[in-house]
Amino acid sequence: MPIRIPDSLPARATLESENIFVMTEYRALHQDIRPLNLLILNLMPTKIVTETQFLRKLANTPLQIRVELLQTASYQSTHTDASHLDSFYTTFDQIKDKSYDGMIITGAPLAYVPWEEVEYWEELCAIMDWTTTHVHSTMHVCWGAFAGLFYHYGVPKILRRDKLFGVYPHTAVANKKQSPLFRGLDDVFYVPQSREIELSEEDILKVPELELMSTSPQAGIFAVKSRDNRRFFLTGHPEYDRDTLANEYWRDKNKGLDIAIPENYFPNDDPTQTPVVTWRSTGQLIYNNWLNYYVYQTTPYDITTLSSPPAQQITPPCP
């Protein structure tokens, strides 16, 4: 949360130059406060694990947040008990007339599936289109980021020769280091990655509505956002738990699949040892910063007044 100081206090300029968030008395007196309404579209098969990971990050903030969980209606999850879905999840038809301050669209294990062959692609397109008028700021994560970039801006996914699997050092792009998204992060920060696809920097830079925010020498592009701050795209998983990559490794290993040991994860690359977490603070800061600076600080008090952002729709409507 910001510190509140008098408008004319000399320290204000110094703090702001150091990228410290301060709020003047005038701004504080004119703020209306209410709970933030967030929606999570959970596309992962292990829904309980995924929802817990995101809720852990969202809960560790002074902001009051009301969260709803959304599932697809066109595809029924077979990995989560139906009673859990019936009790805690809603569908698009049930919420499409509501508005939200923020939304998270998760990843999904569909890297090799062409967009048009994804069973719920038409429904996902409808939801992503709906966010332009009903969600103030949307965070797309991993496969959800690739889907969002393709649908909204026509940015293609590129298949990798091998799977990117491990924890990698990342940095903010030189002219983005002062972005509120990276406030509090170290110059080099670590993020788990687990994907078979990647993005081309050239494809991102040629879209005028997009800003390249963070890259990695090993993992490539990590963070992209729209210039109007209405859409964020993360190719990695800063929300992952300590054992998430380990569970994925042993799952595939026990199936007899050819999977490499995740890089920079197990001590001495020994999968029998407990992984050392190097990304927890990164994940917390990224989600806190998104919630604070791009949702809480800018969302209208009357969320129903949202209007469509000016970003051009490049891809044709889904069939």
What is shown here, in short?
This protein is of the alpha/beta class. The chain contains 10 helices and 12 strands.
Structure overview:
This protein is α/β, with parallel strands linked by helices and 319 residues long. The chain is built from 10 helices and 12 strands. It has helices at 11-17, 25-29, 47-59, 82-88, 92-95, 121-134, 143-153, 201-205, 244-254, 280-296, and strands spanning 3-5, 22-24, 36-41, 65-70, 89-90, 100-105, 135-141, 158-172, 189-198, 210-216, 220-226, 231-234. The strands form 2 sheets. It has a 10-stranded mixed beta sheet with strand order 5-4-3-6-7-12-11-10-8-9, sandwiched between helices. The chain is globular.
Biggest sheet character:
10 strands, mixed
Alpha-beta classification: alpha/beta
Q: Work out the helicity level.
A: 25-40%
The helix tally amounts to: 10
Q: Identify the quaternary structure here.
A: single chain
Q: Radius of gyration, Cα only, in angstroms? A: 20 Å
Kindly report how far apart the N and C termini lie. 44 Å
Q: How would you describe the shape?
A: globular
Spatial strand sequence of the major β-sheet = 5-4-3-6-7-12-11-10-8-9
Q: Averaging pLDDT over every residue, what do you get? A: 88
> Residue ranges: pLDDT <50 for 5 or more in a row?
310-317
In terms of DSSP E residues, the strand content is: 15-25%
Order of helices and strands: EHEHEHEHEHEHEHEEHEEEHH
Number of strands: 12
